[in-house]
Amino acid sequence: MGWLDRVLGRSTPPAPSLDALFALPGAALTLESALGLAPTGLGSVSFRAAEGGASASTVDDVVALLGTEGTGAAVERSVDRFGYTWLMLRRDASDVAGLVTDLHAVNVTLQDNGFGPSLLCSLVGFADPSGRRLGLVYLYKRGTFYPFAPTGAEQRDSPFELQARGALGADLPVEADLSRWFPVWGAPGL
Amino acid sequence: MARTRYLPDRGLSARMGLTMFLLGLLYVVLIGVIASYTNLALGLIIAAGALFAQWYFSDRIALYAMHGRVVTPEEEPHLHGIVDRLCAVADMPKPTVAIADTDVPNAFATGRTPSRAVVCATTGLMRRLDERELEGVLAHELSHVAHRDVTVMTIASVVGVLAGFLTRIVMFSGMGRGRRDSNGAPAVLVVLLVSAVVYALSFVLIRTLSRYRELSADRAAAFLTSRPSALASALVKISGEMGRIPSRDLREAEPYNAFFFAPAVAPGFTLSSLFATHPPLQRRLDQLGEISAELGRPVT
């Protein structure tokens, strides 16, 4: 979608970039060695469920693809207060690559059914032994990551996030524009 | 192979392109007449300068005129959250967020580029709409920013402003002593006629272009939120509310119609459809209905 499309008003939400997610397993190792953060085995995908039957049946298909649903099971579905649907995946804490593959499967299914443009972000959870949490949020439309460290209901540990950014450095494409690091309070997977 | 649910409206794009082309043509005609018959370079430079300043400072001018105040994420976390997420899905820079304290339910967005933009909602709007509807309205405004509507409409209005300016100047100088062109009365009349006709035509074209831009913003917002029905519901609510607003508030808002989500006029008021800045409500609802059907179409 180029300049002319924008000026003529025919814009559409951009297509997501799905492959950069696969850089995560490498980054997980860096986070462990630099900051002592271990993956929690939780990951989630956030998207805007469109109105109508097609979206609902697509999401059902995705859930069926991943495994049984329910608390403590492989997949949990929820809707946040902004109306975005979250699918949280629970996998073995040491199997980051498997988690990323499953997240990718969700994305591809949504995209194949025409809902690619409604993908918002993905999140993989990390925690250190003292209980500090960090999520690596992946922005689909930018193809970049940013760290998000909530400390309370609506507080975030910005210095820790910047420290994580420094540690990740070249391992992961980190979002350069800090104003795009929007907070995902209460996101499943953190 | 990923399928797309985007429903292009080639007719709308074609009509919009044609309107912009005709405006450009008028501009060329006008410049030609100016160059052949008159010597008004300085006046035109001033007019162009004023237009440029209006475009360049559009975000601050609009905010000041609407008595909007910028709000921080701490003051309005929910509003900021909605805008954050819309910008993430649309991959656009986040504009400044502002609120205007007035009971007229409306929203506007302005700014010369997406990175120097402001989106503003009135307290009246936030009071009347629910979450999804408010998000639909904000998505519509963000689409205006993404389509650079301020820039496009400013450029389009150049023709009208120059033509109007030329008409007045020639009328006054033609009746006075200081005629600088050696061709005499006929030349003055020709310039006057041409500039008046150009002004009238450009007025109609600019309003037509504005209606097409509004429809495009509706489309883009529908695809951004994936909920065209929420936007449709917001439209109906706001348009209905306009009839119930005491006339004093509406009269204050009327001059700024082009910026608004829905025109600030009571439904009983008859506007010639040619001069309206916004398409008729039914047309907007029909478009949103089509998009809703497309999004809900089952996977084959």
Layout of secondary structure:
The complex is a heterodimer of chains A (190) and B (300).
Chain A: H1 3-7, H2 24-35, E1 38-47, H3 53-66, E2 75-79, E3 85-90, H4 96-112, E4 119-127, E5 133-139, E6 144-148, H5 158-168
Antiparallel strand pairs in A: 1-3, 1-4, 2-3, 4-5, 5-6
Helix pairs in contact in A: 3-4
Chain B: H1 10-37, H2 41-56, H3 58-65, E1 68-70, H4 77-90, E2 96-100, E3 107-111, E4 117-122, H5 123-128, H6 131-146, H7 149-175, H8 185-225, H9 228-242, H10 247-253, H11 281-296
Parallel strand pairs in B: 2-4
Antiparallel strand pairs in B: 1-2, 3-4
Helix pairs in contact in B: 1-7, 1-8, 2-7, 4-6, 6-8, 6-9, 7-8, 8-11, 9-11
In short:
With 190 residues, chain A is of the alpha+beta class. Helices cover 31% and strands 22% of the residues of chain A. Chain A has five helices and six strands.
Outline the structure in words:
The complex is a heterodimer of chains A (190) and B (300). With 190 residues, chain A is an alpha+beta fold. Chain A contains 5 helices and 6 strands; from the N terminus they run ααβαββαβββα. Chain A has a 6-stranded antiparallel β-sheet. Chain B has one domain (13-295). Chain B has helices at 10-37, 41-56, 58-65, 77-90, 123-128, 131-146, 149-175, 185-225, 228-242, 247-253, 281-296, and strands at 68-70, 96-100, 107-111, 117-122. With 300 residues, chain B is α+β, with helices and mostly antiparallel strands. Chain B is globular. The interface between A and B is large, with 44 and 55 residues.
Question: Domains counted in the coordinates of chain B: how many?
Answer: 1
Number of helices of chain A: 5
* Secondary-structure class of chain A: alpha+beta
Overall outline of chain A: globular
Taken together, the total number of domains of chain A comes to 1
Assembly level: heterodimer
Strand content of the residues of chain B, in percent?
A: 5-15%
